[in-house]
Specification:
Helices cover 36% and strands 25% of the residues. With 309 residues, it is of the alpha/beta class.
């Protein structure tokens, strides 16, 4: 099982860290350099963490826990209007980024009003491209339990719900955080920041359960390994979008149009196989992007047996 950590320190002798990560079978996920300081997100085998900790001390840096690194999470509000959206949802999304997640904020087209709130098939399919979804609802328990629960009752990815009233449980979700309702200002007070921490921990627990399920039937290859092989493609390097490759728990999002990049992606070599033989490549509903879902070892073995390999 891989553990994701972030090195925070200077660029001096940083290549020694890269070489050590490679030697123990880990991967460099992302590098961000500002003058002589650098942050490096790495995925390493959990049992080799003491080795990385020793090298970090030697280099004068520090290791930071980023439990949500390598995930992309949708933070969903009933609408984009001021009635529901601005402050709590943006604060939650920002706090999840501090835990290492890539977040996307979205509002539903017909979420305003308890009787008219609904989610379309397109919106559902878009949300299901992410590793998890956080639904941020309102201040009225009756509205949430009788009407708003249908917004996520058929979502097939893990769902966490954040709401204002104290509710014992909400159906169709894996985590519930109460005490964050509609607000007209940013969440800055100590008790509000504690609630943001609670929401982040709830999402972390949801993601960890999903990671555990994946470990029971491991992927054929870790998404970070695929990232290393495709980030050198010309179309990927030419992409001007921030973070042109985003890691998911079971794959990647490549921010290049599917029609342009599919053939190049399909031909990428991964341990002697083409990428399209060990993964599904499909267009994303997030405009101009391509989704890669890596198959499990069992699925690849099943394909091989059917093909007589």
């Amino acid at each position: 099982m891989y553990e994701v950590l972030m090195f925070d320190g200077g660029v001096y002798r940083i290549t020694e860290l890269y070489e050590l990560v490679e030697d123990i079978g880990g991967f460099v996920i992302q590098k961000t350099q500002i003058q002589v300081m650098i942050t490096v997100t790495i995925a390493i085998p959990a049992e080799d963490r003491p080795v990385i900790e020793a090298k970090t001390r030697e280099l004068g840096g520090k290791l930071v826990e980023v439990p949500l690194a390598g995930t992309e999470i949708a933070v969903v509000g009933p609408t984009l209007g001021r009635h529901h959206m601005p402050h709590p949802i943006c604060d939650i999304a920002e706090h999840l980024r501090r835990y290492g997640a890539i977040t996307v904020v979205m509002g539903l087209a017909r979420g305003k009003g308890r009787q008219t709130a609904q989610i379309s098939a397109d919106e559902k399919a878009f949300i299901e491209e992410f590793d998890a979804a956080v639904f941020v609802l309102g201040n009225f328990a009756d509205c949430i339990l009788k009407d708003k629960v249908r917004l996520f009752e058929k979502i097939e990815i893990p769902v966490a719900v954040v709401c204002g009233p104290e509710i014992a449980s909400v159906p169709n979700c894996e985590a519930l955080v109460c005490g964050i309702g509609r607000k007209v200002e940013r969440m800055r007070r100590a008790e509000e920041i504690a609630k943001l921490e609670e929401a982040a921990r709830a999402v972390q627990s949801v993601v960890e359960r999903r990671r555990g399920e994946i470990d029971e039937d491991p992927l054929f290859v870790h998404p970070a390994e695929v990232k290393q092989r495709i980030e050198g493609l010309e179309l990927v390097q030419e992409s001007l979008r921030p973070a042109p490759i985003v890691l998911h728990l079971d794959g990647l999002r490549v921010k290049v149009p599917y029609e342009q990049v599919r053939e190049q992606l399909c031909g990428v070599d991964v341990y002697g196989r083409r990428l399209c033989d060990i993964a599904t490549i499909s267009p994303s509903r997030l405009g101009g992007s391509t989704m890669i879902h890596i198959l499990t070892k069992a699925q690849v073995a099943s394909r091989d047996s059917k093909a007589g390999i």
